Amino acid sequence: MSRHAMNKPALNRFLVLAAVLGLAAFSNNPYVINLLVVCGLYALPAIGLSLLMGYTGQISLGQSAFVGVGAYGSVLLAQHLQLDPWYSLALATALSAFTAWSLGWLVFRLKGHHLAMATLAIALILHTVLVEWRSMTGGPDGISAIDPISIAGHALLDDLHFLPLAWLVCYAGLCLADYLVRSPFGLAMRTVSENEAVARSLGIDAAQVKRKVMALSGAYAGLGGALYAHWIGYISPEPFSVAFSIKLLLIVALGGVSGVWNVLFGVFIVVIVSEWLKPLGRLDVVIYGLLLIVVMIYCREGAVAALAGLYRKLPQRLRPGARASLKLQGRTSA
Amino acid sequence: MTEFAQYLISGLVVGCIYGLIATGFTAVYNATHIVNFAQGESSMLAALCAASLVVAGAPLLLAIAVAVVVVGVVNILVERLAIRRSGTDVTRGIIITIGVGIVLQGLAALAWGTDAQPLPAFSGPGSISAYGVVVPRQALWVVGTTAVVMALLYVFLTRTFLGKAFRACAMNGQAAALMGIPTGLMRGIGFLLSGTVGAVAGVIIAPIALMQYDSGVALGIKGFVACIIGGFGNPIGAALGGLLLGATETLAAGYISSGFKNAIAFVLLLLFLLVRPGGLLGEFGAAKR
After folding, report:
1. Domain B2-288 falls under CATH 1.10.3470
2. Where exactly are the structural domains of chain B?
3. What average pLDDT score do residues B42-64 get?
4. What angle in degrees, to the nearest 10, is found between the helix axes of A206-232 and A63-80?
5. Closest CB from B82, B85, B103 relative to A286
6. How many Å apart are CA A164 and CA A170, to the nearest integer?
7. Which pTM was predicted?
8. Inter-chain contact B224–A117, Cβ cutoff 8 Å?
9. Distance separating alpha carbons of residues B13 and A87, to the nearest angstrom
C-alpha cells in the first residue's frame, strides 16, 4: 500500500462503512444498532492500543485505566463544573492523554514482562481508586443520571441517533491512525518496535516516540470512555477492569499489524463472539480464553493476515481480482 | 506495640504464601523466560480440589496430596499444549498465559461455582496467643510448610543432578542443550515445580483465607510483586520479597485503610519497578532485557 494510493481506499472504506451503517439504521433493529454503537466505542481504545502494541511494540494491560479516566473524567467535569458534555468530552480526552503521557515517563523504563506488569498495576490501582473513593466516584454503585451529548439542542438519547456520531468519531480516528502509521513518524514507530538500538542509532528518540504514542493511545481510550459514559448514561467501575484491557489485547491480536483498519475486523469478531457466548453462561469465559490462546498460537500476524494467507493458497481461478489483492506488510516477529 | 506486633506477624504469615508463589514464578521464568500470568490459578485450583475431596470424605492429608499432584499435572499439560508453542516472543507468551489463566478460572467457576469453598484447618480451628498477639494455629502450619518447601527446593536445586541441570538450563539454555541436557524436559520440570509449590501455597492458606474461583488472580499478582521486590529469577529474593510485601501490606491496611490494601501492593510494584527494577537482590540490567 504505497502512499499515493491511499486516498481511494480511504474513500471506498468510508462508503462501505456508511452503507453498512445505513443499512443497519434502516433495518431499524434495535439490537443490531446497539451492537454497532458498542463496536464503534470499542474500536476507539482498540485503535490506540494497536498503535502502541501493534506498531510500536509496547504491550499495555493498562488501557482500561485510560478508558476509565476518560469516562469518569468527563462525567465528573460535566457534573462539578456544569460543563456542556462536548467540553467535558474534550477535556477528559486531554486529561486521559496527559495521564498516559506522564505514566509513559515512568513505565517505559521497562520492557516486556515488566512493562506488562507495570501497566497491569496501573489498571488495578485505578480500579481500586474507582471502587474506594466513594465520595468522588460513587464507589461500586458508580454515577448515574449522566447528561447525554446534544447536537444543536437535540439530545442524542437513543442508539439510532448516537450511531452516526460514534462512527464518525471512529472513522476520523481510523483515518488519523492510518495517516500516522504511513508518515515518517509511523516508520519511526515500527523501527522502535523492531529494534530499539537500531532506532537510536538512526537518531530516533525511542523513549520520546513511545511516550507520544502512549499519549495518543491514552487520548483514543479516553475519548472512547467519555463517549461511552454519555451514551449509556450510567457508569460503574466494572467495565473499566483489567478484563477490558484483555479484550482490547485480543482485538488487536486478531486484527494484526498489517493495517489500522483491520482493528475493525477484530472489534466485530470480539463483540459478536461475546454476544454469541452470552447464552452459554459461565462457559463463555472458557471459550474466550481458548480463543485468545489459539489466536496467539496459530495466527501470529493476526487473523486477517492468516485469512489472507489461506486466500492466497486458493487456486487462481477461485480468486476474483487476485492480481489486485493488496500485499500485506506483515511484521516479521523476531 | 501489641497492635504493631499483631499486624507484623499476620503480615509475615501471608508473606510466606506470597514468597511461595513468587518462587513458582521464578521456577517457570528460569526454565522458559516466560512470566506465567496464570501462576495464581495453581493455588486456587489446589485449594478448591482439596476442599472438594475433603467434603467427599477423603482424609485431609490424602486430599491435599491429590490436589497438589493434580495441579502439577495440569501445569505440565498447560506447558505442553499452550506455552511450548508460543515461541520466544514476549508479548505472545504474556497473552497466552493470560488466556490460560482465564480458561482455568472459567473452568473453576463451572466446577465449583462462585462461592468460597472452605478447607478445614489442619489441626483444629483454635488459635494461639502469646504476649497479647493472637495467631490461628494454621499460621504455624503456613510458616512451617513454607520453611520445609523452601529447604527442599534449595536441596533440589543445589545438591541433585537434576537440579543442577535445571539451573544450567536457566543460566544458558543453548549451552546446556549442547552439553546434552534435555531443555524441553527442563521446561516441563519448571512448570511442575511452579505448579506444586503454588498448589502447596494455596492449600495451606485456604483455611485462613477463603478461596474461590477468582482468588488466584490476586495471589498471582502479589506473588509477582514479591518477585520484583526480591529480584526476578532469584528464589531467595522471592521469599524475602514475599515476607516484605506481606508485612508492608498488612501494616498499611491496619494503619491506613483496608480498602486500599490491594492498591498498596501495586504501588509498591510500581515503585520497585521504577527505582530498583532488579529488586533487592538482583541487577538492574535484568529488568531491561
Report:
1. yes
2. 2-288
3. 90
4. 50
5. B103
6. 10
7. 0.84
8. yes
9. 51
**What is the pLDDT at residue A318?**
63
Band of residue A320 on the pLDDT scale cut at 50, 70, 90: low
Going by pLDDT thresholds of 50, 70 and 90, the confidence category of residue A313 is confident
What pLDDT digit, counting tens, does each position of A268-297 carry? 888 888 888 877 777 878 888 888 888 888
Q: Do B106 and A333 touch (CB under 8 A)?
A: no
Q: Domain residues of chain A, as ranges? A: 3-241
B230 contacts in chain A (CB < 8 Å): none
A107 contacts on B by Cβ (under 8 Å)? 273
3-class secondary structure per residue, chain A: CCHHHCHHHHHHHHHHHHHHHHHHHHHCCHHHHHHHHHHHHHHHHHHHHHHHHHHCCCCCCCHHHHHHHHHHHHHHHHHHCCCCHHHHHHHHHHHHHHHHHHHHHHHCCCCHHHHHHHHHHHHHHHHHHHHHCHHHHCHHHCECCCCCCEECCEECCCHHHHHHHHHHHHHHHHHHHHHHHHCHHHHHHHHHHHCHHHHHHCCCCHHHHHHHHHHHHHHHHHHHHHHHHHHHCCECCHHHCHHHHHHHHHHHHHHCCCCCCHHHHHHHHHHHHHHHHHHHCCHHHHHHHHHHHHHHHHCCCCHHHHHHHHHHHCCHHHCCCHHHCCCCCCCCCC
